[in-house]
């Protein structure tokens, strides 16, 4: 509660008053999008790497075949419960949106009406995606089956239900640069792109500050599962002692080196990573070996000791 | 249906066995130990198959068939008493079984049944060739993962 209160005050300070103009959405300029043509076949791989189906399938939809992105899954966060919308190519979904509107939703978190999206939709990672990849992804989305389901409202209490205040949040926490800044091999760079931009692995494996921003100083060092029990594990070299081959095998099959099988939300992630090429899984493993080892729980900045709550 | 029923019966049976408790581990602890050991045996037997599937060991049709047969025995074993009421992760520190499992016994039973089907398929194809083993093992991993997805606390 204390945290929610701090958040309220801060959001009000940033969202209201002085910074109002700063908090307006900033879409990608038309000029950058003109001339892009999406390739739906290539877009399928982007779609798998980005894990859109994990959140936008209907709850409990385990059917085979092309995914029906009807929405309806619920995401519990510290600010309230978000319900994933219908993003299938139908009038109830995004069938009537232009390519530019879709790309701006995915990569800038801006709706066609110019409103901010909540970061429960990980545009905060997709903002680092190549525009060509996004155009391909959008072309692929248009080939998927339509659903007539109506999108459901979020259950987010005041003041977090004020989308405008998200502009302040963006100002504070949106990061369009990659977290890992180092001399990387082309393979590690590809891995960085897959992990930080498309795969949004940090959304679960990185702890958050009280306002819900990812703590880049504790990148991938593990975080409590917001839905309740357990922990999303530390996957920096300080927490994960697996070989690259073992990481690749898990991303492909779910099997850990002990032949346990990962569960929780990681089971869903494996459904996506199992569709990637071997080279891409290898690139993810190479990147995970290259990130700084951070013991968990990482001490909160400025405190010098660990104040992570239990 | 019969299997689903048996899971419910299993929970009831577990309750009945409470009376044998004496010194040493409580019936609840025994239940948790038993099911965790059972799971460990799954993993152990999968290890041999996985080593071949992942190219860390030479494919051998006989070894593969034998390991698949062990796994097949394991999934048939009676799980009476494993899923005793009162042994979820909220009640037992040593358990990672989510309370949701007891709220959805029927679905958990279906997930076990899906594993049985995947293991039957593994047993009938593991000895064919490496590609068949890899394909069938993938199905087993998905069946294990589907249950862990809903009913097991992520590691701590």
What does this structure look like?
The complex is a heterodimer of chains A (310) and B (156). Chain A is mainly alpha-helical and 310 residues long. Chain A is built from 13 helices and four strands. In chain A, helix 3 (40-50) crosses helix 7, helix 11 packs across helix 12 and helix 11 (244-253) crosses helix 13. The radius of gyration of chain A is 19 Å and the shape is globular. Mean pLDDT of chain A is 88; it is low at 1-19 and 304-310. Chain B has helices at residues 2-16, 27-53, 61-76, 100-103, 105-125, 130-151. Chain B is mostly helical. Chain B is elongated and about 45 Å long. Chain B has one domain (27-151): Cytochrome c/b562 (Four Helix Bundle (Hemerythrin (Met), subunit A)). The chains are: A mainly alpha (310), B mainly alpha (156). The A-B interface holds A 62, 225, 229-233, 245, 249, 253-255, 258-268, 270 and B 39, 42-44, 46-47, 50, 53-54, 89, 96, 98, 137-138, 141-142, 144-156.
Averaging pLDDT over every residue of chain B, what do you get?
A: 88
Largest interface: A-B, 24 and 29 residues
Unreliable residue runs of chain B: 1-18
Number of strands of chain B: 0
**Alpha-carbon Rg of chain A, integer:** 19 Å
CATH superfamily of chain B: Cytochrome c/b562
Largest sheet data of chain B: none
- Could you state the CATH homologous superfamily of the largest domain in chain A? Cytochrome c-like domain
Gyration radius from CA atoms of chain B, angstroms: 17 Å
Subunit arrangement of the protein: heterodimer
Discrete helix count of chain A = 13
Feature tags:
A: 310 residues; mainly alpha; Cytochrome Bc1 Complex, Chain D, domain 2; 2 domains; 4 strands; 38% helix; disordered C terminus; B: 156 residues; Four Helix Bundle (Hemerythrin (Met), subunit A); Cyt_c_II (chain B); electron transport (chain B)
List the helices and strands and how they pair.
The complex is a heterodimer of chains A (about 300) and B (about 160).
Chain A: H1 2-15, H2 30-33, H3 40-50, H4 52-56, E1 74-77, E2 80-83, H5 99-108, H6 123-126, H7 131-141, H8 166-173, H9 186-198, H10 202-205, E3 223-224, E4 231-232, H11 244-253, H12 264-273, H13 278-290
Chain B: H1 2-16, H2 27-53, H3 61-76, H4 100-103, H5 105-125, H6 130-151
Helix pairs in contact in B: 1-5, 2-3, 2-6, 3-5, 5-6
